[in-house]
Write a structure and sequence with these properties.
It contains 6 helices and 14 strands. It has 2 domains: 143 residues, 3-Layer(aba) Sandwich (Rossmann fold), CATH 3.40.50.1360; 75 residues, Alpha-Beta Plaits. A 7-stranded mixed β-sheet has the order 3-2-1-4-7-13-14, sandwiched between helices. Strands 9-10-8-11 form a 4-stranded antiparallel β-sheet, with helices on one face. It has a 3-stranded antiparallel β-sheet with strand order 5-6-12, covered by helices on one side. It is of the alpha/beta class. Bound molecules: ribose-5-phosphate. The site of ribose-5-phosphate (R5P) has 17 residues, from helix 4. It holds the Pfam family Rib_5-P_isom_A.
Length: 236
């Protein structure tokens, strides 16, 4: 039986092999622990050394710089060929929850700017419905001074589905809340099984004070899952 770590690596390597070629010019690099293997695989291929890589967080910027790859910004390169990123949960329609590492805003910008958005994950992330396997909640990035207002709106204003629980994400090894790369806070709102993710996303984005939501609906073209048996499965 393959470990979770092995699953992440298998999925990441296969996605790079299938989608990143020397014909590409600009590549989006997601964030999180699975993406580390994406960069590892890119570095094993000398023909990919001359492409430009766009980060989605401070973590992914460091991966690009420390790997000696060419770092670009989304302002310089708004047209990305392929973005590869991890996910916290993926449903059969390729909707995803992202933002377990609080990177959802830049990840969504770089995913949306790409012609092709590819998800890589281990087998634990595959789900029948969002909110079933990933029970830490949908990450909602909020402007700090509005967090109480958003908490109240989550309780009173949603018509699509109400959250079972909403919590301000607190930091570990630092007093106070997690602060994102954009200087914002994150509220994790757990809805249980999410019946209509795209409708919920639309409603959440309409709440005053919400900066971005970690629901990625109708964005990914394909997902790779490293399975426990050592194979890689795909979802298209
Ligand atoms: O904010 C973090 C990102 O959305 C990650 O891509 C996501 O949390 C998955 O991370 P990991 O590959 O570590 O499971």
């Amino acid at each position: 039986m393959a470990t979770i770590e092995a699953g992440k690596k298998l999925a990441a390597y296969k996605a790079v092999d299938d989608h990143i070629t020397a014909d590409c010019k600009v590549i989006g690099i997601g964030s999180g622990s699975t993406v580390v293997y994406v960069v590892e695989r890119i570095l094993q291929k000398p023909e990919l050394a001359n492409l430009v890589y766009i980060p989605t967080s401070f973590q992914s910027k460091l991966l690009i710089i420390e790997g000696g790859l060419t770092l670009g910004s989304i302002e310089q390169y708004p047209d990305i060929d392929v973005t590869i990123d991890g996910a916290d949960e993926v449903d059969p329609q390729l909707n995803a929850i992202k933002g377990g590492g609080a990177c959802q805003f830049q990840e969504k910008v770089v995913a949306e700017a790409a012609k092709k958005f590819v998800i890589v994950a281990d087998y634990r992330k595959k789900s029948t419905k969002l909110g079933v396997e990933w029970t830490k909640g949908v990450p909602i990035e909020v402007v700090p001074m509005a967090y109480k207002l958003v908490m109240r709106s989550l309780e009173s204003k949603l018509t699509v589905q109400q959250p079972l629980e909403s919590k301000l994400r607190m930091a570990i090894n630092k007093a106070g809340p997690v602060v994102t790369d954009n200087g914002n806070f994150v509220i994790d709102a757990h809805f249980g099984a999410i019946e209509r993710p795209a409708c919920l996303l639309k409603e959440l984005k309409g709440l005053t004070g919400v900066y971005e939501v970690g629901l990625f609906c109708n964005m990914a073209q394909i997902a790779y899952f490293g399975e426990a048996d050592g194979n890689v499965s795909t979802l298209v």
